């Protein structure tokens, strides 16, 4: 039976490259001279941690990183920006959480959308991805087209298309 997987993934190597490019740009920007800034990737969660001495510069730092992520073709719907933590001394920290995989609510929403198409396909949640199987290849292609047309708040990719 033909099948494919619906996934929502971000390439960690591209995130690392975007952070490296951001650090390179920070070293040459005059408005960050004399400030202690850092951009780090948390090894466990894969999130990006931004910190700067001057809280007013946090917006500029965040825009640099988000711009570099966008240039590396990372879908920004998978980046969740937490509120910045500003200390009384003016130091500011912010976390950019990178969402990997489909969480329960999004998976249910996508599953419901697939069932609403009334095609002869079955969708099942497997390890933060949705496996769609059907009897006809055309039905699976209709499901892919419908999912691409909809907006689910995360970037969707389609992998492992098998006949």
From TrEMBL:
Q: Which InterPro entries match?
A: UPF0234-like_C, UPF0234_N, YajQ-like_sf, YajQ/Smlt4090-like
The record's listing under Pfam families reads: YajQ
**GO CC field:** cytosol
Name the lineage: Bacteria, Pseudomonadati, Verrucomicrobiota, Terrimicrobiia, Terrimicrobiales
What is this protein's record name? Answer: Nucleotide-binding protein TSACC_3114
GO terms, molecular function: nucleotide binding
Q: Which family does it belong to?
A: Belongs to the YajQ family.
Taxonomy, superkingdom: Bacteria
Query: Which SUPFAM superfamilies does the annotation name?
Result: YajQ-like (SSF89963)
Which species does the entry assign this protein to?
Terrimicrobium sacchariphilum
Query: Is Transferase included in the keywords of this UniProt record?
Result: no
Q: Does the keyword Amino-acid biosynthesis apply?
A: no
Q: Please describe what this protein does.
A: Nucleotide-binding protein.
Q: Which UniProt keywords apply?
A: Nucleotide-binding
């Amino acid at each position: 039976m033909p099948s494919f997987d619906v996934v929502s993934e971000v390439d960690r190597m591209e995130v690392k490259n975007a952070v490296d490019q951001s650090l390179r740009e920070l070293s040459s920007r005059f408005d960050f001279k004399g400030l202690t800034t850092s951009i780090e990737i948390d090894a466990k969660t894969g999130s990006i941690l931004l910190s700067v001495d001057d809280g007013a510069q946090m917006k500029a730092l965040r825009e640099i990183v988000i711009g570099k992520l966008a240039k590396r073709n990372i879908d920004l719907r998978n980046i969740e920006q937490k509120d910045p933590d500003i200390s009384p001394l003016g130091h500011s920290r912010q976390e950019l959480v990178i969402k990997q995989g489909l969480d329960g609510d999004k998976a249910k929403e996508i599953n419901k959308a697939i069932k609403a198409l009334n095609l002869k396909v079955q969708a099942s949640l497997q390890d933060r991805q949705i496996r769609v199987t059907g009897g006809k290849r055309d039905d699976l292609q209709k499901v892919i087209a419908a999912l691409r047309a909809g907006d689910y708040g995360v970037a969707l990719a389609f992998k492992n298309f098998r006949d």
